[in-house]
Design brief:
heterodimer; A: alpha+beta; OB fold (Dihydrolipoamide Acetyltransferase, E2P); 6-stranded antiparallel beta sheet; 3-stranded antiparallel beta sheet; 9 strands; globular; B: alpha+beta; Gyrase A, domain 2; Elongation Factor Tu (Ef-tu), domain 3; 6-stranded mixed beta sheet; 6-stranded antiparallel beta barrel; 33% strand
């Protein structure tokens, strides 16, 4: 499964061929945050779903990036240490945050799909 | 506060047209950033020129032969000898020496003073003036009547000179009345960014045409409150309500420089402003805490409210303003620290999300000020 999944906290997830899942924040989220100046990346360890694994600091404020599912962080995007602006420039690609191994591989597919996420954004815009 | 109750400046429609992201600020619906974004807006102001709508700030005219003498009873600043055509930084103090607001005072001549006060304080400032000096001078709020634009950056003088060539002769903190596009404006060579630039008080009805005309110049971009904050923080300038308030005196806020020689304990017109005794005592015997510049030694921005601790983890202060400095290329902050720790280069730590971020006490401004002093 290579199609994207999303959370209500505006994170995207992409299941990789090796069973791991890559996580980043969506284009909507980076636009709302404004210029990103620092990313505190997670430790390589297990986090529970909903734990604040990472923090993204924009020129305006600090925002938490939450663990989308129970799992263990395997790798972080160290490029963000030197180039946090990648989160703004390419949020769905080069600006990824971390890769993790979900405790329950089937749980990923149950998150929001692109259509459901687009409806969430639309609802937010109209609220 | 719901958006319906927010006040609008005369440039509100222009902000929306320019695609600004609007936020509530001091009761006004204000642009925090435009599509360019805070980082580029900040850099543009340092490189070229930025136009800021600061019409939410309060403009007040004081009139009468006793106006300067009267105002001196409320501020620790020399107003009587403020030359015509000059502006000076001042602050209203309370009986405990705390700061009620900070403001700019200009001498228009003809027994007229022109004040610019903070948006969030302007109603209380007006009441304060009426209560204490209302019987000694005329007090005329211009809140609805006039807008205030700031044109800041190294190209500001070149741009404004296209409308009024005489601005090239002005130096930092000079103040004059000028006709811009056929309208009488008050213009000062000052600002809140650390750059050369001007603040322009313009009748509300003419504000939009003046703003459009300035924005049509290739050097000028509209700049929001987000970049205004990072610019002033790099310049080491205080933001009222954050870096000082009624609980901090000018001494604690490291604003002794703003207390005029003539009004100090050994001055020609010593004291005579609220809280003078407390402030003079503090000046002599020292204070237990002081505002200092702080440079985080890691990339993590340290924000307002973060506790500051010493090597043992004892709380020794807190951050009053903090963020990221685009020109500095890193995080920066100001904070109040126990006086034992205020020496330059002292190493302390801020607690950010439970972790210690090392800070070094640093001189301000963080980025050199580039005022035009002639």
């Amino acid at each position: 499964m290579s199609e994207l999944r999303f959370t209500e906290d505006h994170e995207w997830l992409r299941a990789e061929a090796d069973g791991s899942v890559t996580v980043g924040i969506t284009a909507f989220a980076q636009n709302a945050l404004g210029d990103v100046v620092f990313v505190q990346l997670p430790e390589l360890q297990a986090y529970a779903k909903g734990a604040e694994a990472s923090t993204v600091e924009s020129v305006k404020a600090a925002s938490g990036v939450y663990m989308p599912l129970d799992g263990e962080v395997l790798e972080v995007n160290e490029k963000l240490d030197g180039s946090p602006e990648l989160v703004n420039e390419d949020p769905m690609g080069e600006g990824w945050f971390f890769r993790f191994k979900p405790a329950d591989a089937a749980a990923v597919a149950k998150l929001l799909d692109q259509d459901a996420y687009d409806r969430l954004i639309k609802a937010n815009a109209e609220a | 506060m719901s958006t319906e109750t927010l006040l609008k400046t005369p440039l509100h429609a222009l902000h929306l047209e320019l695609g600004a992201r609007m936020v509530p600020f001091a009761g006004y619906d204000m642009p925090v950033q435009y599509p360019l974004g805070v980082m580029k807006e900040h850099q543009h102001t340092r490189d070229q020129a930025g136009l800021f709508d600061v019409s939410h700030m309060g403009q007040i005219r004081l009139t009468g032969a006793n106006a300067a003498k009267a105002l001196e009873t409320l501020v620790p600043v020399d107003i009587i000898d403020l030359p015509v055509g000059m502006q000076r930084y001042a602050m209203f103090t309370n009986d405990q020496g705390g700061i009620l607001d900070d403001l700019m005072v200009a001498n228009l001549g003809n027994d007229e003073l022109f004040l610019v006060v903070n948006a969030a304080c302007k109603d209380q400032d007006l009441a304060h003036l009426h209560q204490h000096i209302g019987d000694q001078c005329g007090i005329e709020p211009l809140f609805e009547e006039r807008a205030l634009l700031a044109l800041q950056g190294p190209a500001a003088v070149k741009v404004l000179a296209r409308l009024a060539p005489e601005v090239t002769r002005m130096t930092f903190m000079q103040f004059t009345t000028l006709r811009l596009l056929g309208v009488d404006c008050y213009v000062s060579r000052s600002g809140y960014t650390g750059e050369d630039g001007f603040e322009i008080s313009v009748p509300a009805a003419n504000a939009e045409s003046l703003a459009r005309s300035l924005l049509a110049e290739t050097e000028v971009q509209a700049i929001g409150l987000g970049a205004r904050d990072s610019l002033r923080l790099e310049a080491g300038l205080c933001l009222y309500g954050h870096d000082m308030n009624t609980d901090t005196t000018p001494i604690e806020a490291s604003l002794l420089w703003a207390i005029s020689k003539a009004r100090r304990a050994d001055g020609a017109r010593a004291g005579g402003f609220p809280g003078a005794d407390k402030i003079f005592t503090q000046q002599q015997t020292g204070v237990s805490r002081k505002r200092v510049g702080l440079l985080p030694q890691e990339r993590t921005p340290v924000r307002e409210g973060a506790e500051i601790v010493d090597a043992d983890g004892t709380v020794i202060g807190s951050v009053c303003s903090g963020g990221f400095g685009p020109s500095l290329g890193g995080p920066l902050a100001m904070g109040y620290l126990d006086s034992a720790f205020i020496a330059l280069d002292t190493e302390v730590s801020a607690l950010v999300r439970g972790k210690k971020v090392p800070l070094r006490v640093s001189k301000m401004p963080f980025v050199p000020q580039r005022y035009y002093r002639g």
